[in-house]
Each structure stands twice: as C-alpha cells, then as structure tokens.
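Section 3.1: Structural characterization of target chains.
Under the original work plan, the team committed to producing a structural model for every single-chain target entering the pipeline before any wet-lab resources were allocated. The record below documents one such target. The sequence was received from the expression subgroup and is listed exactly as submitted; it comprises 135 residues.
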Amino acid sequence: MVIPDVSVSGYAASEVRWQDEALCNGQPLETFVPDKEDPEGLARARTFCDLCPVRAVCLRYALTYGQRGYWGGTDTAERRRLKAKKNRAKCPSCESRRVVDMEDSHDALCLACGMSWLTEAAAQPRTRTTLRPAV
C-alpha cells in the first residue's frame, strides 16, 4: 500500500520507513482504505497482513494516528474497540492512561507518547516510536 504524501501531526506519511518492508507495499490504496469496509475486504487485506513482518508497527501507526481502513490485520471498528477499553494501565514514560494492549502480543503502546514496552516485564520502556519531520 502506498500512502499519499500528506502531513500528519507535522510528519509526512512517506517518511514512515516501515512501509517499505510491508507485504502490501505496491498494492492499490483502495484495497486497504476502501470507501466502505466489509468482511470480504478485511479478509482480502489479511492475506497480506497475517504474514507481514511489520504488522505490529502498522497497527501501532493506525492506532496512534486514527487511520481508517485495514491496518495491521484490523478494521476501523476493531481498532476503535481496542482503544476504547484500554484505559487502565499507566505509561511508565509519561504516566498517561491512554494505553493500548497489542493484540496477540505482550506489548503495550502509549497513545500519548508513542512508547511501547513489554507488559510482562516490569513495565520497562522498550522502544520509542519516532517519525522524521516532513521536509
């Protein structure tokens, strides 16, 4: 999937390098960001997502920036549910309660600062999601 070069919070989507490694790279955008989402479209998208090496990063991006369409093997409604029910834990970095547990993983993601960490470890920060500013 090729994301148009648009600015999101001061960053150009084309600067998100993980997309180069995505299995959907080069596929038509309409396959993953359709006008109307349906179960068949999600199933079609998951043929790429299920084996994709950057699936978790893709899902984090969609959750962080509120994208619509099929991202990381999920649809918009599923991501809304993920975000809505996960306001319990505190981020060890910024102490925000806007935390999302990652599906099929022991990772958590802070929607406020972009920090991810292993929830089973003593809440030690693992990586920081960083995007390069648009030029």
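Confidence is low (pLDDT under 50) at residues 4-11, 121-131.
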